[in-house]
Each structure stands twice: as C-alpha cells, then as structure tokens.
Description:
Strand content: 15-25%
Strand order of the largest sheet: 2-1-6-7
Order of helices and strands: HHEHEHEEEEHEH
Shape: globular
Distance between the termini: 12 Å
Amino acid sequence: MTLTKTILFPEIEKTIRAFDFETITAERKIILQPLIDFIQNKFTNQQEVRLNLICTHNSRRSHLSQVWAQTAAAYYTIKNVFCYSGGTEATALFPMAAKALEQSGFKIKTIAAGNNPIYAIKYGENEHPIIGFSKTYDDDFNPQSEFAAILTCSHADGGCPFIAGAEMRIPVTFEDPKAFDNTPQQAEKYQERSLQIATEMCYVFSQIKS
C-alpha cells in the first residue's frame, strides 16, 4: 500500500528541509535513541504511537516538542502517531512559544481566551489541528496508558520519577528559553530552542524504518 505524503504548509516544509542532522552531537543522539526505539517498536508492530511530552508548567518546551514531533511524524509519513503534552502543573501556553511556531510557518488560531487560552495549531491545510493549552500530564485530555512519557525539562525529570500508565519514561531535556524572558534576545532564543527541538524531533522520525 502506498502511503500518501502529508502536505505541510510550504514554510514549514522549507524549514524542515534546511535541517542538518550533523549538527546533533553524538551524545545527544544517544539520548534520543530510546525514543527512536520506542517509536520503531510500535510502528513495526502496527500499534499506535502515543507520546506525552512533559515539562514543569506545560508552557514552552513541552508544547514545542509536541507540535514538532507531530509535524515530524507527518513529514516522514509515520502513521498512527499521537502527540500530547502536559506539566507537573498547569499554567498557560506562553505567547512567545506560539510566536516561534508561527515564525516557522504554523497557522495558530485562538479558539478560547482566558488565563489558559486554547489554541488550534495547524501544520497543513488538510490536517487536523493540534490543540494547544496548558494541562497536567495526567489530565483526562491525555492518554492514561500505553504511552511513552518524554521528559523535556530536568525539573520535570527529577520531579516525576514515576508516571502512572507510561510504558516508558524517556528523558530528552532541553534548556529553558524562559531564562531570556524580558531581554533583547527573547525572540531569538525562543526561535533557537524551537528549531533545536524541531531538528531533533525530525531526526528521531527520520530514523524510523518501514
């Protein structure tokens, strides 16, 4: 059976094509390998791949990781991948994280305002939007079993030694762009972190063999 390739928005496609996996260090590739192995095992056995990307506040790195992982799966035609995100506590998706995604070509629409807005994040015209809002990792919106828990920050990694329902717990931590909030480098650093996460998530899915 021939799989139909997902048509991403042109700017996202252009961004992904520019990634150089040689910029990922050997040490970092070792850290990413358990995630590759988890996805490969599920994909080989024709099972659904559920990834719950987790950081402390579910406001920055976990959302960037969720969106880019789902997009990478679509780009590399890895079907039946469902990406979620959560935190050890709920806050709100930080606006600069959403702006960094928009700069790479994502179309983002606010579907509910308030202290914890809900966003529809699209990576292709005909693709179901990713629903982005802050929640705890065990929220009812997220899977309760048969998923991998991907820890995207060291605080969540240290604070979540056990995650109920997770088949695997995989630390893949990133530096927090929050350190640059309210500085002249803020926008640049959010974009830099978004593209690092994007490069690594695309590398992960590029390694999956059909």
